[in-house]
Amino acid sequence: MSKTLPVSPVRILVLNGPNLNMLGKREPEVYGSEGLDDVMSGLASFGESIGAEVKAAQYNGEGALVDALHDAHQWATGVILNAGGYSHTSVALRDAVSSIDLPVVEVHISNIAAREEFRRESLLSAVCAGVVFGFGHRGYRLALQAFV
After folding, report:
1. Which of 86, 108, 137, 140 is catalytic?
2. Helices (H) then strands (E): counts for the chain
3. Is 4 among the domain residues?
4. Does residue 3 lie in a domain region?
5. Which domain holds residue 75?
6. pLDDT tens-digit profile of 110-125?
7. Is residue 108 annotated as a catalytic residue, yes or no?
8. Is 39 inside any structural domain?
């Protein structure tokens, strides 16, 4: 069941999964040369300019991502989730997204449909309010705009 996007106030958790702390270093030809802190700082500034409060976090561990989703249920109006490689493998994250009464927009920096076969299917997409992929770091802004 898809959850509807909030109208106002907009408080968004941007949750990044494993290896996203390596943005700017890991495969810059795929993921860009800008680091995660810079991407998230720019997103927070953009959010402020359009009336959204943005809180960003990054965890390499699956359990920490699940915990963050559960915690977001207490304060956020929505979640932008880039679960990285867990998008393709984690039933636990899928269940966590399903268990919270918040809309979640899944984001991928690269075009997962044009990558290796194992990256083409996301276990999360079907339980998310929307999916943005293939637009580089701009995908986070597109997802944030959907909430606003």
Report:
1. 108
2. 5, 5
3. no
4. no
5. 10-147
6. 877 656 676 678 899 9
7. yes
8. yes
